[in-house]
Amino acid sequence: MISSYTLTVLTLMGIWSVAALGLNVITGYAGQFNLGIGVYMGTGAYATAILTTQAGVNFWLALPCALLISAAMGFLTGLPALRVREDALAVFTIGLVFVFESLLIYLPYFGGPVGIGRIPYVGINGSQLSKEGYLALVLVALGAVVAATIYLRRAWMGLAWASIRENELATNTIGIHSARFKLYAFTIGATFAGLAGVLYAHFIHYVTPYDFGFLPSIYILVMIVFGGLGTIRGAIFGACFLTLMPELFRFIQDYRNLIYGAMLVGLMLFEPNGVLGDESYVWRLILSAQQRLNEWLNRVSKSRRAYSISAAATNEIRHKTPNSIKPASRKILETRNLTRRFGGLVAVNDVNLEVFSQEILGIIGPNGAGKTTFFNLLSGTIPCTSGEIRLNSEPIHRLSPHLIAQRGIGRTFQIVRPFSQLSVLDNVLAGISARYCKGFADSLRQYRNSSDQDEAHLILEQTGLLAHKNEVSRNLPLGLLRRLEIARALGLRPNLILLDESFSGLSHRESQSLIDLVRMLRENGATIMLIEHNMQVTMKICDRIAVLNYGNKIAEGMPEDIRNHPTVIAAYLGSAHHA
Amino acid sequence: MMLLIQQLINVVELGSIYAMIAVGLALTYGVLRILHVAQAGIYAGGGYAGLFLYETTGSFALALIGSVIICGMCGMLIERFIYRPMLPRPRIVALIASIGLLICFSDLFRIIGGPNQLSFDIKSLNGSYEIGKLLISKTDAAILAGTVVIFAALWFVLQKTKLGFAVRAAAQDLETTQLMGIDVSRSVSWMFFISSAVAAFGGVMVGVLYNAIYPDMGDAIAYKGLALIVIGGFGSLTGTVIASFLLAAAEVFMTTYTSVPLSREAIAMLFLVLLILVRPQGLLGKA
Hints:
By secondary structure, chain A is an alpha/beta fold. Chain A is 55% helix and 11% strand.
């Protein structure tokens, strides 16, 4: 027989675990700082409290209602998060939790500072649930939340969250609407936290505004960082340990907070990944033990086969890529009077340019000529001041980056922006994910073991990254990162690929093989625009070259024409007449 | 009329106190991108140290200077041994450590000074000055004078000395500043000294103003300080100071002239939430 005290502690551990898993979705997976998770827990708790005490609703009806209300709260408070980023968001959520607490105290419906009491026991078939029964209920809820979290992490949505966490700008340029997925994270996280609130209310039987204020919110954040941010085991371990700790340290009651604070500081100094985080000491020990066990098992029962793409799949995917369907020399992109001003500076001035399918078009020009700004306009990461951009004769210059990407413009960045913590394979899968991330239901589909794996492997093979597919991308050298960005962009099946100085900083051999890759992409049907400073490379691979200087297009033509163009020579070397 | 003037004095006092905390937070954030919540602990520590020194020496000036120096050095130690090793880590690491420190500080003060309010009564500041019909308490006068001195000193250090120049440069771009041959880690160290010293000064002032020192006196003001640096536009010192006085005005006038049933903290946070909705980059921040 378990004592009543033990049951209470166990139940609280379960409830806090559910809340921690809610915050884990928002902060751990989607990377959005939230220091006000108490708002959602409190919403769930107060919703069920009011429904069951004042409206006389049964728990089993109040539960889904409370979850819906929490989800709505998550959605509403997530809206500003679309405009506010990082630290400002963190402080904003602090603001929210104080306003929330204050509203609970001062609005007449919530029972003021003393809150709402006499929240009924949970009953099943008219009989009241025992303490053991309630613990079982909490564990069922925890199990459901864990299952849902695992499911989400393995779905396209989870991959989109990871992409946003790693690099929001790059996420938009691979066709994922990052704002929408941040909102999903807030809504889902809030629902989990709301569930924790409901369970809390029916366990303690009264709720006060202070139960869900700033400090409880911070405690939940501490739980997930303590255990290991972005992991399920970490959230649960953190929640359980920090619930248990005050009980364990009862004998030093007086110094409890001091020790708690010192422990946090020490942990952050010596194990910033959290006790069970992905790169923590303990977890690496567990992983290496697991690996040794696997090796032993493999020796016993023959090794598993390496991943291989079936010939049929290869054919099917090749067929899907936009090659050879369209006749060459069709105009696919056109800019008309495209202009971008930054205050008084005209970075891109009245540029008219046409791009034809399956060509390799080089954009060159001295530093500060507006080349990268031009690419940013094409990919929509900054809006144009005037003029227009047409892709296949449709105007795209008013579209957001993710929509432009979805229409088939992929890009790389001058300063690489890989999803650093993700494996090479997952980076490419993230590139593929855009087609599943247009709607909510589609984004819930699982991305592992699907036919998209074949496509990702094919892209990795094309780009020569297959051997590195399981490496964490932040460990790759620059040459491979540049390839990785191209591979990620290929996931879109783009018609047009924008390469922003992909050759800079590469060794001779690396650029040779990148040249081969670019040519192969063109053979497969893609059109390529590239910004390049290396004239040898530009002259070698470009079919045509456009030259920008001070935002103006000063020349356009075949490489040999550009080489001898007087205005271009003047722009690069200074005019001979003034020398 | 009298009420209005008294209110204005309150606004200036409250605004200066907010600014004393928030300027340090803005400096720290500007250079290291750390949300330095533990600043609140330094601020309360300033109050405790000031009270202790006043009771042992009997001199308010000595207490003030001593407290400022002790807390400044505390700030330097925190930077050197806690924040510096965490800089390459994700920023949530330093934030959590800072929260841990704040918890440590308040508990330490509770253990040393007891959980209750301690009185900080400066005998020489009892009474008031009479200027015409106007009655200004000596405490108010001393705080206003102190505020002017501390902000003048801060302005001088930041704008007119090499150290200030280095700190402002580091706030723009830490790496480039380093490449220009400036010893950034030394500048950062001194910056922590300055921002902690100013916070301690604020702690002593508030202790005297309300005649009370207590363990978690810094908490509410720390959260408000964070809100202020967001409202001011992250890293903008001028914006932060303006925001401090605006917030003080909002609090003082809303609690006296309207019957908004919200606590002061909630007013501040409502102010923050509304402003972020309208202007996410803050008052003087760049989009």
